[in-house]
Design goal:
Length: about 160
Amino acid sequence: MHTRIDIPEAVRAQVGALLNASLADAIDLHAQAKQAHWNVRGPRFAMLHGLFDDLAEEAEEFADLLAERALQLGVTAQGTLRHAARASRLDEITTTHDETLLVRHLSASLARFAAGVRSASDASAKLGDATSADVFTEVSRGADKLLWMVSSHEVG
């Protein structure tokens, strides 16, 4: 895909791969949060139902930022559900209604997602693409905040 961005094509391809890897994770995170939102049961239902929906919305925003940066670099965004299912680095969410297990799982998924985008930020910076590194940092900042919010509900 054509772009006038003055980053060498080889670097754009490498950063594009990082963006697409994180995009798959963000799409999976969104789906996991919706799964938890729909199925959570227990005494903290109302609070967690809303929190999980907020997480889903934020994950969708993360996906949008990552995909748009890929396109800016002239790289096709790989944003289908099938691609995300194959490429996600997150553990699959188990079908459960238990609020404690859902919180624990989403905390683990958020931690893995945040670590992945932090790593991608470092790699992008080393490749000389400070703008993509900044996008990854923005996503990391949001993921860390969500991780703090979700993990504050972990018990035991």
